[in-house]
Amino acid sequence: MNRTAKLSLLAIVVAASGTAAYAAKAGMENDAMAINKARIPLTQAVAVAQQHVNGKAARAEFEHSKQGWVYDVEVVSGSKVYDVRIDADKGSVISSAEDKADHDDDQDKED
Q1: What is the pTM of this model?
Q2: What is the pLDDT of residues 2-60, one digit of tens each?
Q3: CA atoms of 97 and 49, how far apart (whole Å)
Q4: How many whole angstroms separate alpha carbon 100 and alpha carbon 13?
Q5: Which of 28, 39, 73, 111 has the fewest CB atoms below 10 angstroms from its CB?
Q6: 3-state secondary structure of 53
Q7: CA 8 to CA 13: how far, in whole Å?
Q8: pLDDT by residue (tens digit) across 56-111?
Q9: Is 28 exposed, middle or buried (0-12, 13-18, 19+ CB in 10 A)?
Q10: In DSSP terms, which residues pair with 108 in a beta bridge?
Q11: What is the three-class DSSP state of 87?
Q12: Dihedral sign, CA of 62, 72, 77, 103?
């Protein structure tokens, strides 16, 4: 391969890499930014969840689910832990269930 062909090939690779990186950056959006669209704040969702099971929140996440954007709040009440889902637009409880084991960390074998 002559020098001109090598330089041309290198230029094509560099251009393609730059285009791919730009396209990936443009399509990549941080999920956390979606919280700006939520009608109720995280603090209100935590308060609703705590009141629902009469406990204290240990963890809260904002995530997308089949119901749309929800707050997933883990609440400790006595010796039990509950997973409470709060609708991010209405502030109402979607579901509440006792959490037998902590399944939020895929690296854990058993909690």
Answers
A1: 0.65
A2: 655 544 444 454 454 444 444 445 454 677 888 898 999 999 999 999 999 999 999 99
A3: 11
A4: 52
A5: 28
A6: helix
A7: 9
A8: 999 999 999 888 999 999 999 999 999 999 999 999 999 999 988 766 555 545 54
A9: exposed
A10: none
A11: strand
A12: negative
